[in-house]
Every structure is written in structure tokens, then in C-alpha cells.
Amino acid sequence: MKKQILFIFLFFSSVLSAQNADSIVDKAAKAYETANGAKASFSMSIRSDKQQTTEGFEGEIQIKGNKFTLKTPDMWIWFDGKTQWTYMLRTEEVNVTNPEGEDLQLMNPALLLKDYKKGFKTEYKGESTSPSGKSAYNVMLYPRKKGNIQQVDLQIEKLSALPTSITVMFKDGTTTLIRILNMRTGLNQPDHLFVFNASDFPGAEVIDIR
């Protein structure tokens, strides 16, 4: 009887935890949707257990709906909702693609939050303090199907409902940590900001691999 009661308790605890985790991520997705355009600076570190290496850099992302632009020291990316242009600064090459699935979600965290129910299960992991000193929730995402991603850890501030850090663990032993350094919302950027303008890069070689 004690085992049965314990099982029932654990079952309902897990159900409540899942509901709580879903509601937290849903609020984060809604916060992005109602932000009317957001701009954030971030730091990213990539650790490889296999190669025993760690590299880091800082960058900037602008998001509006499912559109985004991303700038890092090595590359600039534009995505207009369908087509993606990736400009490599070192080679001055622009690769044109139509990304989807995991690749697109990892580029734009707003899409990961928006579509998480299609590919992930959630688990509430408690509370913590964000890098800015604010109270935050910790939620873990587990993929429903086997793929490159093994797990995603989200830290979401209570007040703003926006992520302050995203940790992605991959099958090959690589871990990527993204920390949001600062964010502005309500920018309502023009749509052309999310499209590659060839006239701004007259020496670039455009390679269409769609």
C-alpha cells in the first residue's frame, strides 16, 4: 500500500511539474511574440569533450517574429522567414539556404520556444538567479526523437519571461552555452533588415545551395 501511495504521489508530482514547465516556456514564447522586435547582445561558449577544447565569442541578434539577423566575429546571418544568407567574413562568401528543423531553432531561440511542443518534452528543474541578479526558472527540454540535440537547459527570468541563458548538449559531446548580456524590445524593425543586401558587400561571392 505504501508503494502504491508513493507511486501515485510521484505520478501527480511529475504531471504538475510538466504543466508548470510548459506554462513557463509558453510565457517565454509569448513574450517574444509580443515584444514587437527585439535586439540582444550575447556571449557564447562552445565546449567539446571529445577534443577537450573550449572557444568563446560575443555577438548580436535581432529578432522579429520568425525573422532574425545574427552577427558574430566570423559570420553574419540574415533570415527572412524562408531564405537564409550566411556571410563568412574571412572568405567573403555568402551561402544561400532554406534551413529548417534543429538548424533553424538553434539560430533563433524564439523559434525554439515557439515550436518546442513539436519536438521536446519539458521538465521543471527549480529556480535560480540570472546573471543580472534576478529570479529565474530553470526548465529542461528533452527531444522526443533521437537527433543531434540531447538536451536543452533554459534559464528564464520570472519578471520578463525571457531567457537569460540557453545550454544545448549535443550527441557528439559538444555543449553550447548562450548567455544574454542585454536585451531591448519594442523595436519594430523594418523587414529589409532581415534580408541580405548584395550592394553592401560588392566583393562577396554568392553561392546558392538551396
**Count of beta strands:** 12
Strands of the widest sheet, in order across it, are 7-8-9-10-11-1-2-3-4-5-6-12
User: What is the class in the CATH system?
Assistant: Mainly Beta
| Overall 3D form | globular
What name does CATH use for the topology?
outer membrane lipoprotein receptor (LolB), chain A
Class by helix and strand content? alpha+beta
In whole angstroms, the N-to-C terminal distance is: 61 Å
Rg from C-alpha positions? 19 Å
DSSP summary: helix tally? 4
Summarize the structure in words.
By secondary structure, the chain is an alpha+beta fold. The chain has a single domain, classed as outer membrane lipoprotein receptor (LolB), chain A (Clam). 23% of the residues lie in helices and 45% in strands. It has helices at 2-33, 101-107, 109-114, 116-119; strands spanning 38-48, 53-64, 67-71, 75-79, 84-88, 93-97, 120-129, 135-143, 149-157, 163-170, 174-185, 205-208. It has a 12-stranded mixed β-sheet. Mean pLDDT is 83; it is low at 1-19.
